[in-house]
């Protein structure tokens, strides 16, 4: 395995990002490798499956999100 040492100088005068979605990555500069980490913890010590979800009478279209979301393209 080779080690590379890169020195960068990046100057951004203006940047406009039209949109980002879940799992998007904005990279400025060089990165050798991006690895993901997925961890699953059972912090409650549960041993059985969760019960079925109950309907609360609210339809998904009547719920207003706290953060404005972009409709799927």
Set out the fold topology.
Elements: no helix or strand
Estimate the global geometry from the Cα principal axes.
Answer: flat
Poorly predicted spans: none
Return Rg in Å.
Answer: 22 Å
Number of helical segments with 4 or more residues: 0
State the helical fraction.
under 10%
- Rounded average pLDDT: 77
Report the biggest beta sheet as strand number plus sense, adding barrel if it closes. Answer: none
Oligomer: single chain
Report the strand count.
Answer: 0
The fraction of residues in strands falls at under 5%
Helix/strand class = little secondary structure
How would you describe this structure in keywords?
single chain; 73 residues; little secondary structure
How would you characterize the overall build of this protein?
With 73 residues, this protein is low in regular secondary structure. Helices cover 0% and strands 0% of the residues. The protein contains no helices and no strands. The mean pLDDT is 77.
